[in-house]
Structures are given as structure tokens and as C-alpha cells.
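Recap quiz, item 2
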Amino acid sequence: MDADDDTTGPAAPPPEATDAPSATVAAIEAVWRIEAARLIAGLARLTHDVGLAEELAQDALVAALEQWPRTGVPDRPGAWLTTTARRRAVDRFRRERTYARKLEALAHELPAGAPGADDLARLDEDPIEDDVLRLVFTACHPVLSTEARVALTLRLLGGLRTDEIARAFLVPEATVAQRIVRAKKTLAKAGVPFEVPQGPERAERLASVLGVIYLIFNEGYAATAGDDWMRPALCEDASRLARLLAALMPDEPEAHGLAALLEIQASRAAARTGPSGEPVLLADQDRRRWDPLLIRRGFAALAHAEAAGKAAGAAPGPYTLQAAIAACHARARTARETDWRAIVRLYDALALRAPSPVVALNRAVALGMADGPAAGLAAVDELSGEPSLQGYHLLPTVRGDLLARLGRYEEARAEFAHAATLTRNARERELLRSRAADPRGGVAGTAGGGTTGGGGAAAHTGR
Amino acid sequence: MRFMSLIRVNENGAPEGGPSPRMMEEMGKLLDEITKAGVMLDTAGLGRPEETVRVRSEHGKLTVTDGPFAESKEFIGGYAIMQTKSKEEAVEWAKRFAAVHDEGWDITCEVRQVEEPPAG
């Protein structure tokens, strides 16, 4: 079903509706956004099957779309959806029990794990939040492909429709629908239990959850393809998921770390693009346009991450470290006042915790700011043979930037031109071409070309 | 999208003893839920309405007046800033907030979109 039909075409409104049906449909969609995760999570515990839970929830949504335009939205719409979906679940179990009994006559056994009245009773005892957390971990299970984890997370936890996910990721709706169907099958086939993993598995599973949310944010923050520099709605979806996760796992430092990172990165949204949509690098951003509310929230989440880390006796994890780096930028009133030494130290810690060529590249950028472009260039050149950075546009971008600051403009020009051929983002390509045309100047349309040295900061998490 | 819900309280619709324990509990649960949903960005209650100070610029004439103001029938009791997918979602949360108030209350949640600066 596609609840959006009513707002886009004349065909869908139910003929019997007397009020403005599109308004009701919008209200129903709003209820869905709020209730979807909890509804599906509660049903998943009941059915031990996330796919089935989602179908039952969708059935309830369809019922709401049929009835509410006539009857009005009920006072407790969440309870209505839950009751409707549970009733359908019970109907289905009954059918299956009958079927199972018939089978039993043949096989002399009932299917293991078939839910019943006990599950219904238990559903009201355990807090629903535990179920939502189980749903998060199930949707992000490593048995699924990354694309499937992302689609399932947005669908089950974010309450997004298939067409919305498709639009956000620039893929056909059928592809997303297929991905979700396959993901649900994979989960069922692998017998993935509906639980929050404990023990040795836990760290890897949590990393997957954090990674999926971060990926959703980044997809919105800097589109990897196409002409849109930003798809802010995805960023907001990811921020919302990160806040949800931090609330559900208050003792988990990295959940707060991720939330902090996303709040601070999102705080720069308005400053990241210029009047004609071109990207503005961190050093050139008008910091008055940074959102103080989100920065404040980011600082608060970072403080939670650090406190939770201390309580657990754990060294800061990668998201907390990246959030701390983002916080360094947020604290600096001007690019010049940035505490680059602190940032180098944080990248050192990050390189220990989560070593990667990209982290090393970012460290080189910070070093170039703390100790000058020659030091930065030396660090970058150590990475030039790194196979995973071949074809990565930010390596020549950073190198070009440092060369330009050293006055080696011809070499800088070549680096920017090379970088422009590597990026998939149209806006970024334009920016790089303009820098290739004029390696002395800064970013078109921004003041203070002399500060574009920090432009290499485009490489790091805090673009 | 961001919305601010301004909570306007009718002065005849604010019970002397303040919110009942039941209402406080329900309100706490709801605020917790909105926060955990990742929707609530900021919220606060405001101080005593009779201590309001009005600073007004009326066609170039500046006046500062201390409360209480006999003529006001309502005051702003608090606010919430929410990040939602739609206006309807913000309205739905406001409905839930309004619904936890006891019978003696007369409040209005005024839900307004917060203008966010366009990029560039």
C-alpha cells in the first residue's frame, strides 16, 4: 500500500470520507511514524518473526486507512493499531494451530516456538522499549547485506515507506521492496533470534547498528551520487535513530558518542552549502549559521558518552572520538581558533582504536594545520601508496590543498583536477574544478581564500 | 522539520494546586517517550506569569512594563521544540501532550513550524 497516494493524486481518497481525506491520511501517516517501531517490535516478540510482525502492522495500518477517514482518528491511535494487529496475529495463530493440528496427526508434533496465550500475556509485562531495541539489533543483523540493513532499519524503525527509502537512495522502488522482502526471508532462514545479543557477539552487533545509522546519516549529509548535495530528511531520520538508540542503551558510551557526532555534524547543515548549492568547506563556513541548539545537544551527548565510558572503565570508542573532534570545531569561534593540536591527539587515539587510511589522512590534515603544510604534506605522502586510498578523491584534494598552501600551485592544480575526476558528487566536482582552475584562490563565493588550508578538513568526519 | 509547541494556559484553567500526581506521572511518561523517540530537541516550563516583563516597541516608542497584567486572560506556560517528519506528526505529539491534562485545565498548544535557514 502507499499511503501517500492521497496527497499526490485524486484516485485514492475513499469516496465515503466526508472530511478532507488527505488531511486524515496525513494524520494517519503521522501516527504511523510514531507507532511503527513499537508496534512492529511488540508483534515481533509475539510472533518471533520480524517479517510477519511487519506484515501484521501493515495490515493494521491498512485497516486504519480504511476506517479512520470515516470514523476519525481514535483518541489512542497507537492502542487501536496494536489491538487490531494483535487480533490479526491471534487469528493467524488460530489458523496455523488448526493447520498444525492437522499436521500433528501426520507428524505427531507441534511446531516448536509457536506463540500462544502466554506470549500475549507477556507482551504487556515487558517494557516495549526492550522490544524496540531487539528490533534495532535484528534489522542491523550482520547476516544481512548493508543495503538490506539500511532499508530494513528505515522501514521498521523509522516508519519510512518503501518509496521514500527508494527516493532517498536514488534507486527504483521495486529494488527497495525486493531488498526488504529478501532481508525478511534471510532473517527467517538464518533463524535470527529476536534479542539483544550478549557476550562476545555483542560488540560486533553493536558496531553494525551504529554503522547502519551512521551510514544513513552520511547518505543524507553528502550524497555519494547525483546532484543533491544534501538530503536533509535522511540526516534527520538518522539523528532520530541515534537519539533513540542512546535513550535505549543509556550505559553504552558509543551510542551517546554516535548521537553526539550526528548532532554536531547536523548543526553545520545550513553553513555547508553556498548560495548556488556549492559545498562550503569547514574552514570557510559562516559559523554564525551553525545551529547552537544541535551543538548544545551534541556537547551534552558527548558528556554522556564520556561519563558512560568512565563508568565502564573503557577508553573512548571511535564514534566518541569523532564526536570529540567535531566538538573541537564547534567550540572554535573561527577556523583560526581551532585547537588543531587537540584534534591531532584525538586522531592519534582514533588511529589506535580504529586504524584506517582515511583516519590517517584526516590526521595529516590536522597536522598540516597544527604544524604547517609541510608537516601535513609529509604525512599525506606516507599514505600515497595506500591501496585503499587509490581512487579516493579526498587524497588528491588534501594533497592539492597542502601544495597550494606551500605555493606549489602547478602541482596543486594537477591534484585538484585529478580529484575532480574521482568524485561522484556533481557539486563537489564543480568545486574541485574551480580549485584546479585557480589553485591560489579559495572556494568560489566564500571569503577568506587564505583560510582554505583547512579545506582539507573536507576529508574528515566533520565536513 | 522542526516545530515549536507554545503552551498557552488560560488563567481560569490552571488549578491552584498545580498538576495532580496522576497528571505529573502521565506527563513525565509522555515527555520521556517523546525524548526517547528522538523527537524532543528542547523543552522547558516558564516562570511565574505575574513576573512577566513586557518590552514593547510601538511605532518607534519603547516601553517596559512589569507584570502582572490584569487584562491578560492567558499566559505562555512553556514550550517544546520537536523534530518531526511532518506537521501532522508534531500535531499528533501536541495532542498527546494536551490529552494528559486533567479536567480542571484549559490549555492550548500552539504548534508552529520553526523556520530553518535554507542552505547557502
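Strands of chain B lie at 2-10, 40-45, 53-58, 61-66, 74-83, 107-113.
The mean pLDDT of chain B is 93.
End of item.
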